[in-house]
Amino acid sequence: MNVTVTSKLPSVGTSIFTVMSALATQHNAVNLGQGFPDFPMSKDLTDLVNEAMNKGFNQYVPMRGYTPLLEILAEKVSGLYNTSIDAGSQITITPGGTYAIYTALTTVLQPGDEVIIFEPAYDSYIPNVEINDAVPVLINLQFPEYRIDWNEVKRKITPKTRMIMLNNPNNPTGSVLREEDITHLRAVVQDTNILILSDEVYEHLVFDKVPHQSILRYPDLLERSFVCFSFGKVYNCTGWKLGYCITSPSLMEEFRKVHQFNCFSCHSASQVALASFLKNKESYLSLSSFMQEKRDYFQQLMMQTKFTPLPSYGSYFQCYTYANISDEADKDLSIRLTKEIGVATIPVSAFYKAGTDNKVIRFCFAKKKETLEAAVRKLMEL
Ligand SMILES: Cc1ncc(COP(=O)(O)O)c(C=O)c1O
Fold this sequence. Notes:
Helix content is 40%, strand content 15%. By secondary structure, the protein is of the alpha/beta class. The strands form three sheets. It has a seven-stranded mixed beta sheet, with helices on both faces. It has a four-stranded antiparallel beta sheet with strand order 9-10-13-12. A two-stranded parallel sheet has the order 1-11. It is globular and about 55 Å long. The chain binds pyridoxal-5'-phosphate. Pyridoxal-5'-phosphate (PLP) binds at residues 35, 96-98, 122, 167, 171, 199, 201, 230, 232-233, 238, 241, 243.
């Protein structure tokens, strides 16, 4: 018997990350494409996981998360952003940042709701909106600084606008929000029923002493926001797929209704380990300078190539334009670089629904020095 299904996401294909990583493996290329560190995560943290497992933390923790981890997160928020949040009712541990985002959208979106998404955008956003029968309203970040044009945002607001999605620091561009962006955001949502989703999975990875404009700094905005984080991204263990969401108690009550019947509760030993690990503030305060050093080293190496850097203020990523080298499409160049030069990157057009090509490719610098050096040696051939 032939069974058939009607696709809920007919326009979704294989992601560019999977395509480029497969191509990188096939051609034995240095992979600066997909966003994951190739250096080991903290041994202190893996030791704490082993210890937790050996001590018997192998059964379900509460649906919202392991209580000491929620408490230390609330303490961290208070210390970093001077905002008091309630550990019990405002935080939920999730299996990764992407899941937290999907759950938040599924919690609140009704068919026909409009969601403002800035492009280039992380690839899960549009499908996550569409699967809820809501409508993505796309706005381009202004090239080449990739800042938000708030006048365009105002023009695109309609009575159906339900949510504005932010990604700060931004993947793929490394742009970050400034205080004036928060002022504009506040003006746009004031006296409306518009919610905010703030994807802050690259929290702490903000460089040059620029303060991270987390929504958590702004209690008035937090009331209408889901703020999503990833332990995997910041503690160099992307494979753990562990993250969390922070919101108001009333929005969290609804969020948990969806979470409860999907995941219910997340990996226990990792939560026990993180609860101890985060007691030492250096575990997160050291992250910015650690990753900035990688960005600076990569930028310095890349000066030997013909690529022109665009600014990167945060995240794992640095974009480069090649407009002065070649006029081929960014996807074609990425494929050629992988096959002929031996370096995998991601074409930034892949982050636009319409495939907008500004002749920019994204490099992930969250790699060992040797990896960055090997990649740049090859790129110098171009
Ligand atoms: C902007 C952004 N959000 C979310 C995620 C996913 O985080 P996680 O692996 O914790 O689901 C990523 C990962 O690449 C990302 O770049």
